[in-house]
Specification:
Largest sheet: 4 strands, mixed
Bound molecules: zinc ion
Strand order of the largest sheet: 2-1-3-4
Strand content: 5-15%
Length: 199
């Protein structure tokens, strides 16, 4: 398992949380634990949906779209969206199975929240997909092979987890803050915008 330590928070993000905590009731807690517990796991259902994810992964892999990563999104016992890795065929480094499935499902349903949905993925999510899953408010994740398994054939994301725990300037890709005050002003304007859509 990769490190589950939380990444350091940049000063601007801390400032943002401080402002929005006052300006938008409840927004500071958007990425905390879900308010309701998902239904108990049904092993037969779980295996059925994971087989569908595996089939997508197999087809994508054989088609040359990318690695063996397939994904289905399920709501109320039915598949409402699917995706598979298309990094190679679309030249998109973010086209992981989970991201593709989340995008497709949200677009189809005209809703940026997937609360009430469960996600099946053939491989344990990488940090990018895990973040997308949290942002989409998915209730539960089922995975096939682990991050450790994926690392044995070169899909090693432990490096990214290590990077997230380093100070910004010490990362392999350094992050440099520029025009922080001006940018923060824009954030404050957004917080005060009466017709903004909360997400
Ligand atoms: Zn991923």
């Amino acid at each position: 398992m990769p490190s589950t330590q939380f990444p350091r928070c940049s000063p601007s993000r801390r400032q943002w949380l401080a402002v929005t905590a006052f300006a938008i009731p409840g927004v500071a807690g958007v990425l905390t634990a879900a308010d309701t517990k998902p239904a108990p796991v049904d092993p037969a259902q779980a295996e059925k949906f994971m087989r569908q994810a595996l089939e997508l992964a197999r087809k994508g892999m054989e088609n040359g779209d990318g690695g063996p990563f397939g994904c289905v999104i399920v709501k109320d016992g039915a598949v409402i969206g699917e995706g598979w890795n298309r990094v190679v065929s679309t030249n998109d480094p973010t086209a992981h199975g989970e991201v593709v499935a989340i995008r497709e499902t949200c677009t189809k349903n005209k809703n940026f929240s997937l609360k009430g949905c469960e996600l099946y993925t053939t491989g344990e999510p990488c940090p990018m997909c895990l973040a997308a899953i949290y942002w989409a408010r998915i209730d539960r994740v089922y995975y096939g092979f682990s991050c450790k398994d994926a690392a044995t054939i070169g899909f090693d994301d432990s490096f990214i987890y290590e990077q997230m725990n380093k100070p910004l300037a010490a990362r392999t890709i350094p992050e440099v803050q520029v025009l922080g005050t001006e940018s923060f002003e824009l954030l404050k304007k957004y917080a005060a915008k009466p017709n903004r859509v909360k997400y």
